[in-house]
Fold this protein.
Amino acid sequence: MKRIKIIVGEIEVLANLHETKTASDIWDALPFRGKVNRWGDEIHLEIPLKLPKEKEARDSIRLGELRY
């Protein structure tokens, strides 16, 4: 499992990436910067990738999960 660090201002968060093609493509594109937006309780970050949706992808996420 690959581990990444997300830094937003003074806040640093560690996250684990799953063993998927999408996660691997994101890993290969690191590091990158993006504009952060908040939508309700979710934090969104635009990243410089356009990837297809994996067939195992879910529309909903649990607290603490990352989603592309």
Observations:
- The longest helix spans residues 21-29.
- Residues 2-45 form one domain.
- The helical segments are 21-29.
